[in-house]
Amino acid sequence: MRTKYTDSIEFKALNRIKTIRGSVVLRKDLSGLGSYRQVSRAINKLIEEKKLVKIGAGIYAKAYLSKYSDTPLIKNGIDYTLREALKRLGIAYEPGRAEKEYNEGKTTQIPVRNVVRLKSRCRRRIGYRNSELIFEKNINAK
Q1: Residues 12/33, Cβ–Cβ less than 8 Å
Q2: Residues of 75-88 as b/e, b for ≥16 C-beta within 10 angstroms?
Q3: CA distance 30 to 27
Q4: pLDDT tens-place string over residues 61-104
Q5: CA gyration radius for the chain?
Q6: DSSP 8-state symbol, 105
Q7: Based on the number of CB atoms within 10 Å of its own CB, is 35 exposed (0-12), middle (13-18) or buried (19 or more)?
């Protein structure tokens, strides 16, 4: 990212994103840098430069460019990042039924889809491109 001034919001946002340990960046992590519109412009610029990707409303993930194509890929993998986003939002969940059965050794079928069972309410869509976090039986906790 090329910035003219180290006091610019884009520069400060990039530095703050670098200090975040995981690969999920919430909008509230950058809220103290400036006004809502200024932060929005900084986030959009980072998305344009393919340093961030949007995975939900106010939820972004750190990204890097693929060696083979010009598409941004999510650091640490998509499945791990989507579950990390739930943790950062404070939403309680547990693995889906198929994943539990595989981990307990009851079946040899490896679960392909990223399915979780919610323990607290979540009305968001969290995903990137073709991968989306699926809530088991499409049921939200009450």
Answers
A1: yes
A2: eeebeebbbbbbeb
A3: 6
A4: 999 998 898 899 998 888 889 989 999 999 888 888 888 888 88
A5: 17
A6: T
A7: exposed
Tokens of 86: 């739930």
The secondary structure of residue 67, as a DSSP letter, is: S
Token look-up 């412009």 returns 41
CB 96 within 8 A of CB 136: yes
Give the residue among 85, 97, 67 at the shortest CA–CA distance from 76: 85
Q: Say how far apart CA 8 and CA 75 lie, in whole Å.
A: 26
* Angle, CA 98 vertex, CA 97 and CA 102 arms, to 5°: 115
Q: How many CB atoms lie within 10 A of CB 97?
A: 13
Tokens 């009450």, located at residue: 142
